[in-house]
Structure formats: C-alpha cells, structure tokens
C-alpha cells in the first residue's frame, strides 16, 4: 500500500528559529515529510502495517501521541 499523502501542507516559520541545528529565518517555507514520521520504528510498534490502534483507544476515540 502506498502513501496517500507523503508530505504535509506547507508551513512557514513564524519567527527566526533554529531547527536541527539549522537557522530558519522568519517566513521560511517548511515541508514535513510525513513518511519519515509515520514509519518511525522508534515510535510505532508496527510502522509497516496499517494499525488503527496506533491512534485509537479501546473506545475508538483518537489518542494523541506524545512522542
């Protein structure tokens, strides 16, 4: 199964900031590669398998991941 949306919507830095050791001036366009997050084996038990349990509790309600 392929990724339906591998990239997030573009964002811009609201202030001058440093991210991962890189300086980003205010207004810099930022694109997040969602695949790098959604397939991270340090975060998900089964990153290569569709598993609604990653996001839902036993009542079927959305659970925010804190990591």
TrEMBL record:
Enumerate the GO terms in the molecular function aspect.
Answer: heme binding; iron ion binding; oxidoreductase activity, acting on paired donors, with incorporation or reduction of molecular oxygen, reduced flavin or flavoprotein as one donor, and incorporation of one atom of oxygen
- Keyword Metal-binding tagged: yes
A Gene Ontology term for the protein's cellular component: cytoplasm
Q: What GO biological process terms does the UniProt entry carry, in alphabetical order? A: organic acid metabolic process; xenobiotic metabolic process
Q: Does the keyword DNA damage apply?
A: no
What UniProt keywords apply to this chain's record, in alphabetical order? Iron, Metal-binding
UniProt superkingdom: Eukaryota
InterPro entries annotated for this entry? Cyt_P450, Cyt_P450_sf, Cytochrome_P450_fam2
- Pfam families under this entry? p450 (PF00067)
Family listed: Belongs to the cytochrome P450 family.
Annotated protein name in UniProt: Uncharacterized protein
């Amino acid at each position: 199964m392929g990724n339906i949306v591998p990239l997030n919507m573009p964002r811009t830095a609201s202030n001058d900031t440093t991210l991962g050791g890189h300086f980003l001036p205010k207004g810099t366009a930022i694109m997040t590669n969602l695949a790098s997050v959604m397939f991270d084996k340090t975060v998900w038990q089964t990153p290569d398998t569709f598993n609604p349990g990653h996001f839902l509790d036993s009542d079927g309600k959305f659970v925010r991941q804190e990591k």
